[in-house]
Amino acid sequence: MEKLIMIKYGELTTKKGNRDNFISCLLNNIHNKLKTYDVKITKDRSRMYIESKNIDEISEVLTNIFGVHGIVIAYKINTNNIEEIKKASLEVLNFKNFETFKVVTNRALKDYPMDSMKISKVVGGYILANTKNKKVDVHNPEEILRIDLRSEGCFIYTNEIPGIGGYPVGIQGKGLLMLSGGIDSPVSGYLAMKRGINIDCIYFESPPHTSIEAKNKVISLANILCKYTNKIKIHIVPFTKIQEAIYKNNASNYMITIMRRMMYRIAQEVALKNNLKVLINGESIGQVASQTLESMSVINEVTNMPVIRPVACLDKLEIIDIAKKIGTYETSILPYEDCCTIFLPKHPIIKPVLNKCISIEKRFNFEKLIKEAIDNIEVIEVPKKTDVDIENLL
Ligand code: ATP
Ligand code: MG
Question: pLDDT per residue over 111-163, tens digit each?
């Protein structure tokens, strides 16, 4: 009996036309994540199988790979002989501590001499006859023994570890995540990746108004998001001059609105240059003045790229729950100022008017400043050994 991992694709299998693409993208992502292990991976149209000496560690890694819907540690015998199946089933259950059980059989081999019900009954009977104090409970069993009969042999297993689901990262191409150091944007990045979008990140920094710790925090957040993908590129935009120009030109209560229009303009250019198809950010409707519907439409006006806002309709508490689950929360709440909070006016405008934005923007040559900022972008890729000691930030 051989112990191996069986991966269930779940949602992928419903996308008939695209199935092969999905499976090869998932396979590629799994290969990337398991580079450091000695593994043999095989696939068919409904499952993937991983053979390795490090089954437990690998199944842990798999729980963070999008497109994996279920992880099963299965035992395989290379025969479909019913006597062998009975013996192997008993052996699998002998590892377990339980009183009630049932057997569920799935038979891909339709010409097998017994039907699924019959196989379950025969194997269940054998288990009862060879154990003490066990009972069959078809409604609420403590253990379910699953038997999958396939042409390549028989797979026997008990519990399935749920995967994180979604689509394999990359199947939908790439987007640009506006990553600040807050709680919302890393969650948005995670949710976008869950739909199969590979991400680059863009971060606007304003030294000396923002600290090196704020920048390192963003790098650290991107690094945490790498748990769910392979590598992430961060485009770090020097934003100080633009922010100061807006401030000096008396944008007053339009400060944030104009600043965000500048961010969107830059993000769009960076996206186009790098072949990234959408912008992604952590805006949540009504959360702050710049996220009212009026603000969002005036800000959005500078771009014709699709903008995805995965947390737009979530409550803050729901976003926090996800941040905790994905491991970004503790880093997000570190107290380093973002560039937005430093220039925050006392009463930011809640219902900005487009013409007013345009007239403020005419007061200075923002195109030149934007070009200069884009020419001076620093690109960092994570994970990598940088002089930023990510662990020590926390
Ligand atoms: P977060 O939304 O990440 O918790 P926040 O709430 O402080 O941080 P907001 O001021 O609400 O951020 O900005 C809304 C969104 O705009 C952010 O989620 C992020 O996508 C983007 N954004 C804001 N500031 C920056 C920045 N300095 N660099 C990159 N993106 C930013
Ligand atoms: Mg926010």
Answer: 899 999 999 999 999 999 999 989 999 999 999 999 999 988 999 999 899 99
User: Bridge partners of 47?
Assistant: 8
Q: What is the pTM of this model?
A: 0.91
Q: Which of 62, 50, 48 is nearest to 12 (CA)?
A: 48
Residue limits of CATH 3.40.50.620 in the chain: 174-393
Tokens of 288: 């702050």
Q: Which of the ligands is closest to the CA of residue 348?
A: 1
Determine whether the shortest distance from the Cβ of 264 to ligand 1 is under 6 A.
Answer: no
Q: Which residues pair with 106 in a beta bridge?
A: 148
Tell me the per-residue pLDDT of 326-375, one tens digit each, with 9 for 90 and over.
999 999 999 877 655 668 888 999 999 999 999 999 999 999 999 999 99
What the block records as the tokens of 193 is 């990746």
CATH architecture, domain 2-162: 2-Layer Sandwich (3.30)
Name the closest-CA residue to atom 4, ligand 1: 182
Domain with CATH 3.30.2130.30 in the chain: 2-162
Q: Indicate if ligand 1 lies below 6 Å from the C-beta of 288.
A: yes
CA distances from 69 to 49, 164, 212, 276 (A): 14, 6, 39, 27
Interatomic CA distance for residues 166 and 69, integer angstroms:
8
Q: Is 178 in the pocket of ligand 1 (CB under 6 A)?
A: yes
Amino acid letter for position 204: F
Cis peptide before 238 (omega within 30 of 0): no
How far is the C-alpha of 73 from the C-alpha of 50, rounded, in Å?
A: 10
Asked if residue 299 has its Cβ within 6 Å of ligand 1, the reply is no
The matching CATH number, chosen from 3.40.50.620, 3.40.50.1970, 3.20.170.30, 3.30.70.270, for 174-393 is 3.40.50.620
